[in-house]
Design goal:
Layout: H1 3-6, H2 18-35, H3 42-61, H4 65-72, H5 80-87, E1 90-94, E2 106-113, E3 116-123, H6 129-134, H7 142-158, E4 162-168, H8 175-179, H9 182-193, E5 200-209, H10 210-214, E6 221-225, E7 229-231, H11 235-242, H12 249-256, H13 260-265, E8 271-273, H14 284-302, H15 307-319
Parallel strand pairs: 3-4, 4-5, 5-6, 5-7, 6-8
Antiparallel strand pairs: 1-2, 2-3
Helix pairs in contact: 2-3, 4-12, 5-14, 7-9, 11-12
């Protein structure tokens, strides 16, 4: 059975997935009937599966920016914790910022993946309601960004590459976070990541919202999963500012040019990683495997560069962002 029919979509799935859910329900009913009787229904099941594959491809090829935002937020979409479990051979978590505390919204640790050894930094949203509350739904405090930078400096001393998984609607906006220097912590991360003398790979695996994403988003290679988004602000936040209404979020999503295709065209990301048919939430293991292959290729490529080449390329890359295909600006 292929990706489209391999994993049933929950019954309260996204609105545009309802026709796909109906088809999957029919397939499941026929499979159950065939298993519990002597009826030969394989032909009908194969026809429905082919129809499901075709319809899934058509639906996902025509998604609006707002619908892609909702796919990026899907509860079954693989998160940083899933990549740690399914992609890595070994992982040793590192805690704390040595100043205030250990922010659970950002996870850091020493990782191994086949022949590659690196520091993993990523946003952590949590799976259960309790975990999500403890992680502030992936919205990090300043101590989280300080922890990330401190561990990146450790990786630099150990001459280990850095892999960053971005999945946050934005940095935590609470009063306590502002009092502890939220903006300054993010700004310090962005500035210092340009000077770190080891390869950095950043990948948006779900939501890439505002400074919360940029705080761990400076990299020699920046990629996105096909149905993720990367934006200066969430669609709801943009709609609240411009139209004073959250109902305008779909219009805001369209105006923000936040989809992977838009960002690749503008030169803001180097590569868009295709997801399994119907999105990463339908086949998490397949999505993780595709990410693993791309990360391996990037690490293999970047570790061959000298420190001077690495830092020069990193500077030119971000200097040229926003121009067609990321071409350098005059005088860059």
């Amino acid at each position: 059975m292929t990706d489209a029919a391999a994993k049933p979509v929950v019954q309260d799935g996204l609105a545009f997935e309802r026709p796909l859910i109906d088809l999957q329900t029919k397939i499941a009913e026929l499979q159950k009937l065939s298993a519990g009787s002597h009826l030969e229904l394989s032909g009908e099941i194969e026809l429905l599966e082919e129809r499901l594959r075709r319809q899934t491809a058509e639906v996902y090829a025509q998604l609006s920016p707002w619908e892609r935002v909702n796919v990026a937020r899907h509860a079954d979409r693989p998160m940083t914790s899933d990549y740690i479990q399914l992609m890595l051979d070994d992982f040793v978590e590192l805690h704390g910022d040595r100043v205030f505390g250990d922010d659970r919204a950002i996870v850091t640790g020493l990782a191994s993946m086949g022949p590659h050894r690196f520091l993993l930094v990523g946003h952590r949203k949590g799976k259960t309601v309790k975990d999500r509350l403890a992680c502030n739904f992936g919205c990090a405090h300043p101590e989280g960004y300080r922890k990330a930078l401190q561990k990146m400096r450790l990786a630099e001393k150990m001459r280990l590459p850095i892999v960053s998984f971005i999945n946050t609607p934005g940095a935590y906006p609470g009063i306590g976070a502002e009092e502890r220097g939220q903006a300054g912590a993010i700004a310090r991360n962005i500035l210092d990541m340009f000077e770190i003398k080891v390869p950095i790979v950043a990948l948006v695996i779900g939501e890439g919202g505002s400074g919360g994403a940029l705080g761990i988003g400076v990299g020699d290679r920046v990629g996105m999963l096909e149905n993720s988004y990367y934006s200066v602000i969430s669609p709801e936040g943009c709609a609240a500012i411009l139209w004073k209404s959250g109902d305008k979020a779909p219009e805001a999503a369209d105006a923000l040019k936040l989809t992977s295709k838009d960002l690749q065209r503008l030169g803001l990301v180097d590569k868009v990683i295709e997801e399994p048919l119907g999105g990463a939430h339908r086949d998490p293991k397949g999505a993780v495997e595709r990410v693993k292959l791309q990360l391996g290729a990037w690490l293999e490529e970047l570790t061959k560069l000298s420190v001077e080449e690495l830092l020069a390329q990193r500077y030119r890359k971000f200097r040229g962002m926003g121009t067609p295909l990321g071409s350098p600006l005059p005088g860059a």
